[in-house]
Amino acid sequence: MSPRPALPGASASPGATAGDVLPEVRAVGLPRITAGFDMAERLDRVTHLSVHGSMPTLTESEVIDLAELMGLRGRGGAGFPFYRKLKAVGESARRKGTRTAVVVNGCEGEPACRKDATILRRAPHLVIDGAVLAAEILGAQTLVISVTRDTNEASIRDALAERGLGEKRGRNLKARIVRMPERFVSGESSGIISAANGGLPLPPGRKVSASVAGVDGLPTLFSNTETFAQLAVGARLGALRFGSTGVAGEPGTAMLTISGSVPRQTVVETPTGVPMSYILQMCGAGVGQGVLVGGYHGAWIDPQIASMVTIARESLEAHKATLGAGALLPLDPGLCPLGESLKVVEWLAGETAGQCGPCRLGLPSMAALLRDVLNGGGQGALEALRQAALGVKGRGVCSHPDGSMRFLLSSISAFTDDLAAHVLGGGCGRPTKGVLPLLGSEGPGGKGGKSGGKASNEKLVVDWTLCKGHGLCAGLLPEIVRLDRNGYPDIAGTRIPEHLNAQAQVAVRRCPALALRVEDATRR
């Protein structure tokens, strides 16, 4: 099996940021989800049908059986069997005597993952095909597609218009887009459902299954962009043809994002069962000193294991790893692995929704203690770090604290020699370059260097009619934002230092209540 030539990346619209430019796309063997990418940057309705053909008409039982035979699981991280979700939503609706809703999670708040953005921008109709099929068999009255970027929203909005889907009265299925803030926790199911119901785009903390009560209180099918695209492919091919590639029990293809120590970030469609080392080599990288699998809520695997495992659930789980949202990040041997991990841990601490103690207090504490360890804090600092990490376990409103803890503990477990060198005070002697991509970074990763302490002509302002005291701004801008004893920001018109301008804009964008803004400090 040989890799196909690189497929062109989609161009960005005028004024788009660097994050809006999609990665190069490659396929191992015959493409399925990426079929037609060599024909057009974006497959409109006509091109989509010429490449994939029309969708068949299937019943609820036929789709459930198909999803089970496909071995289809959620491709957003948790990997829950899709057929079980379908059954749960249908049974819940029949018990309650109600209709249902379908939600496509198109939020990718992790910069190490770009495969969903690639599908949304380049093959939007494949996603909608799968979502509409699920909506039809479940008798759904609402289809929600959540996104975080202007470019993704524009592609989906155009696709819905091309199909005549929208919120017009009289339609059996009404489709709408829900825009989420661009941050790591935006993909959390309960936060998206809260936003779809007109609430804050935050996990509310109530542990209620979407299949029981989701959008508008209806039983809701919630799954990831790639999952619905795979369903659309499987519906056209049938279970037998779908299983003609990949490994038994997990047939078909997987979409991966390759980042880290690679020449360029790349999205790859590959049959399951292909060696991980082959995929990395195809993208111009080796296994390095280890590979981060599953993204920033994932875990590091060492070079020996990375050379052995395949892109398959069973192979990875044998080594306590999972593909998660499909991210692979090899790390060059010439870099400090713990320094690179520290940048990610600090970023994860800033990505908190700021509404529970493990996120708001625990994650910044973990980041500070890891920095102490790397600065030669000794065995005491290392033990305090382990205790702080275990202290957030299972206590968060959402899965962000647990995932961040998993990444941190994996980092200090995978690179024991480097850890010992830092704990003893000398350090490993290798540089940290920020190759693990982070939102708002300057260069391949990290947040860029400070340019000095000069104040700009801008200041941060709070709209007190909107502020709810979430405290996210204090986590993102601790240098200039403090919280008062009631948990509200105490800013007092302080000018923003020039080196924090970009981070201030991040704080404005991610304020859940939209209560922050930047103003000209010279304006009266």
From TrEMBL:
Pfam families: Complex1_51K, Fer4_15, NADH_4Fe-4S. Signal peptide: none annotated. GO terms for biological process: cellular respiration. Residues 338-382 form the NADH-ubiquinone oxidoreductase 51kDa subunit iron-sulphur binding domain. Its cofactor is [4Fe-4S] cluster; FMN. Coiled coil: none annotated. The keyword Methyltransferase does not apply. One of its GO terms (molecular function) is NADH dehydrogenase activity. Keywords: 4Fe-4S, Flavoprotein, FMN, Iron, Iron-sulfur, Metal-binding. It comes from the Bacteria. Belongs to the complex I 51 kDa subunit family. PANTHER family: NADH DEHYDROGENASE [UBIQUINONE] FLAVOPROTEIN 1, MITOCHONDRIAL, NADH-UBIQUINONE OXIDOREDUCTASE FLAVOPROTEIN 1 NDUFV1. This is Oxidoreductase. It comes from Actinacidiphila oryziradicis.
